[in-house]
Design goal:
- Helix content is 25%, strand content 29%.
- The protein is of the alpha/beta class.
- The longest helix is centred in the first third of the chain and has 15 residues.
- It has five helices and twelve strands.
- The strands form two sheets. A six-stranded mixed sheet has the order 5-4-3-2-1-12.
- It has one domain: Carbon-nitrogen hydrolase (Nitrilase/N-carbamoyl-D-aminoacid amidohydrolase).
Length: 239
């Protein structure tokens, strides 16, 4: 079967970590029938630099709460995590009650002072991975701006973009994510924050560049057909 149900979440992050986690758990349960669920970047804590150690230590509680809930579907989000080298913004993909893929944000947003708080990951780790014969890639927010990273993910069926993208550059997010889908001829799934200073613009974008987006919803859901990827790559062969 080539059809997959996608849910991209678009819910506000508050200062209450546990309330954010409870909201995420509720939305996952509500959309339990989805094959792929993606949540906004650092949706459980935000960039809470005033309580950075607390945010980093919330990682383990979040994983313990999410693990029993995530079985056959795939969940992608980012969490702040303490490592021996420093604190990172880590994208994780959960499947079958386990974290089966992780990737630390490599391109830090200097306008938001991320470089002062986070250790950057390596761009070499931004790579394709496969689950159930579907190839995926992840770009975390600001990483969407770098065309060399698009090339690293060439051949992916689905690219996931968890983001906290500012409202002032809303058009950039919408334009770049749509262009990525068209150029890489793949599905692009964006999950962005709807907080007051954020752009929303969460979307499900087809390889043809068709966009499903609704800034008023907490969850945007659609069925996609992976046959569209082979169809457009045969029709417009750009290799």
């Amino acid at each position: 079967m080539t059809s997959r149900r996608i849910t991209t979440l678009q819910f506000e992050t508050t200062s209450n970590y546990q309330a954010n986690l409870d909201k995420l758990l509720h939305l996952i349960k509500t959309h339990q029938g989805s094959d792929i669920i993606i949540a906004p970047e650092v949706c459980l804590t935000g960039f809470d630099y005033d309580h950075f150690d607390k945010a980093a230590h919330f990682y383990e509680r979040a994983i313990r709460s999410l693990r029993p809930l995530i079985s056959k579907q795939l969940l992608c989000l980012t969490l702040i995590k303490a490592t021996p080298l420093g604190i990172v913004n880590r994208a994780i993909v959960m499947h079958n009650h386990q974290v089966i893929y992780s990737q630390d944000k490599a391109k830090l947003f200097r306008l938001g002072d991320e470089h002062q708080f986070f250790v950057a990951g390596s761009t070499k780790h931004i790579t394709k991975f496969e689950i159930n014969y579907i190839s995926y890639g992840v770009l975390i927010c600001f990483e969407l701006r770098f065309k060399e990273l698009w090339q690293q993910l060439q051949g992916c069926d689905v690219i996931l973009i968890p983001a906290q993208w500012g409202k002032a550059r809303k058009m950039h997010l919408e334009t770049l994510s749509r262009a990525l889908a068209i150029i890489n001829q793949c599905f692009v799934i964006v999950s962005n924050s709807p907080n007051s200073d954020m752009a929303s613009s969460s979307a499900i974008i087809t390889p043809n560049g068709d966009v499903l987006m609704n800034d008023r919803l907490q969850a945007i859901e659609a069925d996609i057909d992976l046959k569209e990827i082979k169809k457009i790559r045969r029709y417009l062969n750009i290799d």
